[in-house]
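Entry for the shared binder. Reason: the reviewer on the internal report wants the predicted structure included alongside the sequence.
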Amino acid sequence: MEVSVIKKHLSTIVLFALLLVLAVWSLFVGVLDVDISGLLQGDREHWEVFLISRLPRLLAILCTGTGMSVAGLIMQQLCMNKFVSPTTGATISSAQFGILLALLFMPNSTLWGRAIFSFAFAVLGTWIFVWFIQRIQFKDVVMVPLVGIMFGNVIGGITNYLAYKYEMTQALSTWLVGHFSMVLRGRYEIVWLTVPLVVLAFLFANHFNIVGMGKDFSQNLGVPYNFVLFLGLTIAAMITASVVVVVGSISYIGLIVPNLVAMFKGDKIRGTLIDTALFGALFVLACDMVGRMVIFPYELPIELIVGIIGSVLFVALLLYRLRHGRKAIRLNRKEGGVA
């Protein structure tokens, strides 16, 4: 009995162990030397660097990887498309647009003030995107993310136009490229919002699965389709906005991680949510470590590392899904002919 339980959760155990080892290692990687002996001896400089920079950075990385992966998983399930994510669903672009408006109309606003604008426009942009795709009669596997990419580019174009017009390009650049180099104690706590939102997503995981099967199916089982759809999209948008406000734009996480986990664990949210969260955190942490070490003592933005790896994986996943989907269509047709 115990052996079967271990086999069932083997992937979760392995991911957690790898994440734990890499997380501890990351605390001692950086330009300033911080080691265990210095911490045990109570060295003041070591503890200041550890508590002000290294630990907040690690927590921000874990929240970012976990949150963006879960947000992507929710959007893919609710939109019934494996290529929908905060990147291809205009959520990130909408959050950046909200931050720009906060900078324009409230130049002296705090980080929380910008976050409120970002939350509002991320939710609104995500809803509009879903409203668009619900009115597409023939939802091809590639058509839905293309609509999201085009919609996101429109929002991005408006954002860039306003930024150039009002000379806000330099101020906005902080949120256009994701990086953890500016994460310090007192400036990153908003990203903790991802924790209760991920817990809420786990509580409604079964409802998301049902809604992902269609409106009629949901209504037959007594699940309020519109409410669950509204809740899921809001959770995904708020997670994305909280990350963008603190870290900036990081693409592909919500797209790549859920697809890779689904290949091994299936498409049921409750069965894949924990592994998706762990693998997302591990993926972002590994990319951040590469960015810190590849041209040490300088640092590459994590958006660059994730963008390179994510673009390659995205093309591979696209080809895999198209080939797999066509086989499934042929199989269904054969079964229908026999019947």
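Summary line for the report: The chain has a mean pLDDT of 82.
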